[in-house]
Write a sequence for this structure.
């Protein structure tokens, strides 16, 4: 399991962000895992996520001149990915849901491997149930709430970074995040 | 303290954005503290599960993407026939220019040869069919009383028209 990444992407090994965008192979090596992960968590389809990640990195590479350095390269890439995921989900809604069902088997495997250091079998089972419940509840969130929820709790991005990646104001991001959390707690049966 | 935090406030604490009042409440209320900790833990496990799932799929997806990228140039040509035609025209332009330049050079050489021939024929005093007749008459048979200068001039002229002698 990969360690949890910092909120932003590190920029080591490159002299400047513009140069980083010019080296396509290095761009793929460094950012593919994160862009793919966000797309996968959003679309729940490995093939679609791969297409989105590929498209995202190719666009970033081709349009490197459009990067103005207002955010990190990583946040800029996530903004492209957010737009591509949204377009993909809207244009291929039927395929999206069909493939979601097909990829459910892979997800079940992942849930079974949820780490529980020193936990009893009962605690492990309870943790798996919670993760499963969060997963299902997140899938039922409205599009914007789901995007903000995944960027915050899967990608560890803070509110400002999420605002930059989604094009929303920080206050709007916070509102979406809190509503998403309340909905997930309610759906997952945790709300008092 | 009589009331627990409402759902919205619990969400703020779980999101890592608690107000000072909520922070104080959490210090005093073990139940709310446990609720926030439980959800933070659940979301941490959710993150690990998603990351584990993604790690398992990422490499295969990248291999598929690379395979698609290899096939993509052909698709681009099909998708953008106008661009393909433009690219072909641009690629063929130097060849066309070379052929056109060669044709122009050949034409110029032929034109030059024709002009040379015309000049030669114009410079002839007598047309070719009349050459035998011209040979019977000496164009140098100038009167004997001609001045020396004139004779010299005729001589010069005849030498210039030596071919009709």
């Amino acid at each position: 399991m990969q360690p949890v990444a910092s909120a932003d992407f590190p920029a080591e090994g490159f002299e400047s962000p513009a140069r980083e965008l010019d080296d396509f192979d290095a761009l793929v090596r460094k950012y593919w895992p994160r862009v793919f992960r966000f797309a996968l968590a959003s679309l729940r389809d490995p093939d679609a996520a791969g297409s989105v990640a590929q498209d995202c990195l190719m666009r970033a590479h081709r349009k490197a001149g459009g990067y103005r350095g207002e955010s990190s390269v990583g946040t800029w890439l996530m903004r492209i990915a957010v737009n591509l995921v949204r377009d993909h989900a809207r244009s291929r809604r039927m395929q999206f849901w069909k493939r979601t069902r097909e990829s459910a088997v892979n997800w079940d495997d992942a849930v079974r491997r949820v780490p529980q250091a020193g936990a009893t079998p009962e605690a492990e089972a309870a943790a798996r149930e919670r993760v499963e419940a969060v997963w299902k509840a997140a899938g039922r969130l409205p599009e914007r709430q789901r995007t903000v929820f995944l960027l915050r709790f899967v990608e560890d991005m803070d509110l400002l970074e999420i605002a930059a990646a989604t094009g929303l104001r920080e206050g709007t991001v916070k509102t979406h995040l809190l509503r998403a959390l309340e909905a997930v707690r309610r759906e997952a049966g945790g709300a008092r | 303290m009589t009331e627990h935090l409402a759902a919205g406030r619990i969400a703020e604490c779980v999101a890592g954005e608690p107000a000072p009042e909520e922070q104080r409440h959490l210090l005093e209320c073990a139940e709310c503290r446990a609720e926030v900790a439980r959800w933070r833990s659940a979301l941490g496990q959710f993150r690990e599960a998603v990351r584990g799932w993604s790690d398992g799929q990422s490499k295969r997806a990248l291999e598929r993407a690379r395979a698609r990228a290899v096939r993509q140039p052909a698709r681009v040509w099909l998708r953008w026939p106008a661009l393909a035609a433009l690219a072909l025209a641009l690629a063929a332009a130097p060849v066309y220019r070379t052929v056109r330049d060669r044709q122009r050079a050949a034409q110029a050489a032929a034109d030059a040869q024709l002009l040379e021939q015309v000049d030669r024929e114009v410079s002839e005093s007598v047309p070719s069919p009349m050459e035998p007749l011209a040979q019977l008459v000496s164009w140098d048979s100038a009167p004997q009383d001609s001045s020396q200068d004139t004779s010299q001039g005729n001589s010069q002229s005849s030498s210039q028209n030596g071919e009709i002698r």
